Amino acid sequence: MGVWGTEPPKMRRVCRVGPNNSMFFFPSNDTCQRFRTYYVWGRNGNSGPFLLIDSLSIKSADSYMHLGANPIGTTTNWRYFIQYLDSCSTNNSFSDTMGVDDTPPDTLFLDSVSVDIPTNRVKIGWRKSPTPDFFRYLLFYDSLAIKWVEVVSGVLRDTFATDNNLFSDPRLRPLKYDITSIDSCNTRPQVFNINPHITIYLSGSVDTCKKTASLQWTHYVGWPKVRYYYIFRQINGAGYKLIDSLPGNLNSYQLPILLGDVNDFFVRAYRDTSVSVSSTSSQLTLQTRGRKEPTNTLLINISAVNPDADELKADLLIVNNEESKQINIWYNASANRGTFSNIASISSLGQTGRISHVFMTPDREDELHFRLESVNLCNILYENNVVMPQMVLKVVSNSNENTLTWNRYFGWPAGVSIYRIYRGTDDDFGKRSYILIDSVPGTDSMYVDNQLPENVGSFGLCYFVEAVQALPAPADPVSAKSFSDCLIGEMVVYVPNAFRPGGVNTIFRPEGSYIDYANSSMEIFDRWGGLIVSQKDISGGWDGKDASGNSCIGGVYYYKFYIISPNGKKQTKSGFVTLLK
Questions:
Q1: Could you tell me the pTM of the whole model?
Q2: Is pLDDT above 90 for 6?
Q3: Is-contact 79 97, C-beta < 8 A?
């Protein structure tokens, strides 16, 4: 048989809960097994008798709520003890005496916050709370500077934690943390957010022109001072290495890199104390690639857009997706590079393959030479050595044949295969059309046309030459056209003396050869000298109507024609014409 007796109950804490006091205790260790009752005694103040407040008849009870102990508007300072009675002994057992716990826990401070590089999660550390009545830690992060959010829910009693919250990504911004605690009465310090800690946020950029990486980071916040920042880098996943250190007042760094490498960085701060305390920044990845310099961008063709206009088209080839932001076209009347002048600039950023650019030629009568240079993304010039000419055709008339001469086209790798000869004539309304009349080998630069047509048109005979590229070629075979050259003879003008609208001769205008109808003009008067029609461009002639579109009566009318030839010569014709009905 054991010794009969009891151990008194032991007070745990007394907490103020608004107008009530909540008491917690360890029950008595009753070896007698003849429990009778607990008596709760208390007094308000440090002196005076204790008063019986209540009794508890349940042996396993471990708490008690003193209702109304703290009336509103009063100051209370309650102290309590518990008396235990059983039927085994005539002696009473008493617990220790304990007052209401109104003292908050000690204020806590973080030691450090640091980013775990493999997981990119923030690790937070602090020292153990010295408060005897400590219950748990409350760890918070500042959610986008809007509100403090608890990092770890539930009971936290370790001295370290990891922030696994979804929006806590230290690679996106600095993250701010602070800590406090509560005791067993759920009391916490009144002060908070007096020394938060903020992670190091690392950012950076690459200058591919200078081939350098620039790093910037936010200073660590939470320590009185940072002694050093250590900079670590790994290249292409080969493992991190320390590359440099900086004083704690600096937060930027620049270093050379090789284009095409993947560079990962982080920065580690060390606190200015004898104890080694550090914090690691977020990780930064700078992935670079080698530039494709425009060393092979080619000028592959120079051609007249329209043989009768003054526009040239330059065809270019950007190979292997080479990168240039601008292509400049240069020209001169000789192949001397020093005397070339810029004539066109093409924005080529992001373009690849074959592109074309149209520009006005400075002189369609002289043989000009063209070449190009490319400007890379760093404003470095790359000259292309290929020079190509503007083809110029000269036509001379010799009795019943016309002789054509031109400068040979050059610049294609395999040269010219053939030259195609085109001849054109104008209809009565000045519209010109060309037909292919012959081809000659690519080594020729002269042709004699002795099969001349009977009708040479208003503007005479015009010619142009087309050079066809020989294979192999760097791109699809191309051709280059010369500008046209026309043979214009003496203007011959004949004016009819009558016409019948709706009949055979439906309009009235001058007829003949080498008449520039579009630039000529006319005036028609009635028999009393009144002006009926005045118009420029007489290609359509006079149709027998006045300026308002009303048909004129039959009769005799007076005319004046101011006629210009294609080469600028002028004639004036005047007289009478009969309008037949």
A1: 0.63
A2: no
A3: yes
